[in-house]
Design a protein that fits this description.
Strand content: over 45%
Radius of gyration: 13 Å
Helix content: under 10%
Largest sheet: 7 strands, mixed
Order of helices and strands: EEEEEEEEEEE
Structural class: mainly beta
Number of helices: 0
Number of strands: 11
């Protein structure tokens, strides 16, 4: 199983980015998908998740109403649309898959991340 996050970059405050999570040897529509972020020296933080069973989503409070998680089954890719970005969103973002969606569950696979930097 391979998960590759992409789409990060440098953006100004208030800007937008769309992150992609491409999966190999795994069907994303059969697994829960999660997005996490990590700042150097700090613990990894839950950002969002999407359930494969009923399509429900969840978000960390600071990104709710700004970020949207989705999945394209034809492309076997998950996305994280990030709008109204703030400097505190700066981090390495990674995607993960597992049997159950949630902020406090164990995900089976975590892919390599993509750097998001928001300038003030």
């Amino acid at each position: 199983v391979q998960l590759q996050a992409s789409g990060g970059g440098l953006v100004q405050t208030g800007g937008s980015l769309r992150l992609s999570c491409a999966a190999s040897n795994l069907r994303l529509n059969l697994r829960a998908v999660g997005w996490f972020r990590q700042v150097s020296g700090k613990e990894r933080e839950f950002v969002s998740c999407l359930s494969d069973s009923d399509g429900t989503t969840d978000y960390e409070d600071s990104v709710r109403d700004r970020f949207t998680i989705s999945r394209d089954d034809a492309e076997n890719t998950a996305y994280l649309q990030m709008n109204n970005l703030k400097p505190e969103d700066t981090a390495v973002y990674s995607c993960a898959v597992g049997p159950e969606a949630g902020w406090d569950v164990v995900y089976d696979y975590v892919g390599q991340g993509t750097q998001v930097t928001v300038s003030s």
